Amino acid sequence: MDGLAAGMDVVGTYFANGEYFVPEVLMCADALYAGLDILRPHITLDPEQMVKGSVVIGTVEGDVHDIGKNLVKMM
C-alpha cells in the first residue's frame, strides 16, 4: 500500500506541475485500483489493533473524483 500511495503522490506532483493531465491521472488511478485489488486478499487485520466504531465517508453525488475516498476506505 505504501508503494501505491507513493506513486500517487508522484502523480499528484506531476499534475500540479502541469506535466500530467486528467487522462494520465485517471490512467494512474486505474493502475492504483488494480494494485489494490491484488493486495486486498493479502491484508490481514490483527484483532488487537482493530478499533471498533463507525466512519461515514462519501463523495458528492455525481462526482467522479473519488480516488482519495477509495484510498481512505482501504485503510
From TrEMBL:
Its BP terms in the Gene Ontology are:
homocysteine metabolic process; tetrahydrofolate metabolic process
Q: Where is the B12-binding N-terminal domain?
A: 1-47
Spell out the protein name for this chain.
B12-binding N-terminal domain-containing protein
- InterPro entries per the UniProt record, alphabetical: Cbl-bd_cap, Cobalamin-bd_sf, Met_Synthase/Corrinoid, Meth_synthase_dom
Question: GO cellular component terms?
Answer: cytosol
One MF term in GO for this entry? metal ion binding
| UniProt keyword terms in alphabetical order | Cobalt, Metal-binding
